[in-house]
Amino acid sequence: MSAEDLEKYETEMELQLYREYRDVLGLFTYVVETERRFYLTNSVDLQVRSVDNGEVFFEVTMQDAWVWDMYRPARFVKNVRVVTFKDVNVEELAKTDFELPSDQ
């Protein structure tokens, strides 16, 4: 496979992933971003933890999530647990964020 073929394949995979994201977005309430992944979910629990040396880390658990990962064969995940020392962003989606405008 040439570099051009690989780039074309990855571009197609990204486009397919974006279309899937667009199709499932309305099913979820929260967007969760970690340093490695992007998730859509309806159930998220974020706990701030600390270790003996004073460092802080985050433990995030989600149920019935969708994962933005083009190399993953199944993007729907029953249970997710993320432990990280990096930032975690949790946002609640407004229903107007993904409603299509009506024709006028």
From TrEMBL:
Organism: Actinomadura soli
Protein name per Swiss-Prot or TrEMBL: DUF2469 family protein
Pfam hit, one: DUF2469
Lineage: superkingdom: Bacteria
